[in-house]
Amino acid sequence: MYQLERAIFDLRRGVPVLLTDGEGDCLVRPVEGQHEGALSTLLERCGATPRLVVTRHRLEALGHEAPSDAVSLVLAGAPSSWDLMAGELPAYEAMLSATTAERTALGMLRRGSLIPAAVAAAPRQECRDELARLVASGTLLSLDAVQAGEALSRLGHEVVRVSEAAVPLADAEVTRFMLFREADGMREHLAVVIGEPAEWPEPVPIRLHSACLTGDLFASLLCDCGEQLRNAVAGIHELGGGVLLYLDQEGRDIGMANKLRAIGLQELGLDTLDADGCLGFGHDERRYAAAVAMLQDLGIERVQLLTNNPRKISALAESGIEVVKRQGVYGRVTPQNRAYLTTKAGRSGHWLEPLLDQDDSA
Ligand SMILES: Nc1nc2c(ncn2[C@@H]2O[C@H](COP(=O)(O)OP(=O)(O)OP(=O)(O)O)[C@@H](O)[C@H]2O)c(=O)[nH]1
Ligand SMILES: [Zn+2]
Question: Angle between the 128-136 and 36-46 helix axes, to the nearest 10 degrees?
Answer without folding.
Answer: 110
